[in-house]
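Progress note, sequence design subtask.
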């Protein structure tokens, strides 16, 4: 009976959770970076990443290896593709993490880095910094920059900040959840403004998340 109630609560939670206040730029995924036999995902947390070995700082369902990503417990040149999604801002030494990614990446393999730029503070367990595409280039080291750009644009920045600002007025966590849900459903259609705004040459001024694709030379 308890399992039935748990599934019912999870179902209601999915139905009530508003869509994310952002829309991804599809150009981010046009780089021909095929998966290999072994691929690494850094930062999927408890979400299952099919086709990848999922690494996270904490052990939780869906995580295959719990470790510090600055010291990956894998041999050299093992992975064909490495995903690092919204992790570099949480590590004290991002250059060490990228060097570890370079080490475990096989020649000809690809690394995909995604980081926030204009985005609220979010600790996991800490939040140290923000990045630009130029900043990601400085971390590339011996990896070749294949592509770079903005995953999410100015409207995503605006909506995320409005949601967090509204929750600042709520002293109780249940009330913050209600405010997030109501405002999230009311505001999320505005995210589609970024389909037009990201065509602007100045959209980067308020860019939300940026990305870079790196390739390890043969």
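Output:
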């Amino acid at each position: 009976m308890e399992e039935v109630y748990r599934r019912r609560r999870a179902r209601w939670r999915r139905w009530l959770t508003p869509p994310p206040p952002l829309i991804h730029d599809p150009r981010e995924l046009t780089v021909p970076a095929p998966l290999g036999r072994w691929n690494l995902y850094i930062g999927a947390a408890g979400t299952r990443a099919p086709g990848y070995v999922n690494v996270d700082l904490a052990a939780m369902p869906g995580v295959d290896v719990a470790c510090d990503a600055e010291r990956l417990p894998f041999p050299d040149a093992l992975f064909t593709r490495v995903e690092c999604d919204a992790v570099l801002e949480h590590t004290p030494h991002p250059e060490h993490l990228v060097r570890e990614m370079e080490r475990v990446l096989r020649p000809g393999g690809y690394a995909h880095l995604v980081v926030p730029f204009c985005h609220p503070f979010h600790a996991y367990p800490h939040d140290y910094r923000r990045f630009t595409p130029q900043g990601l280039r400085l971390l590339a080291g011996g990896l070749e920059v294949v592509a770079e750009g903005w995953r999410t644009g100015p409207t995503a920045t605006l909506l995320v900040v409005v949601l967090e600002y509204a929750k600042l007025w709520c002293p109780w966590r249940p009330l913050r959840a209600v405010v997030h849900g109501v405002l999230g459903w009311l505001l999320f259609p505005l995210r589609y403004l970024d389909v037009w705004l990201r065509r602007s040459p100045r959209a980067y001024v308020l860019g939300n998340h940026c990305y870079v694709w790196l390739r390890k030379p043969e």
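The longest strand covers residues 105-116. Work on this subtask will continue into the next period as scheduled.
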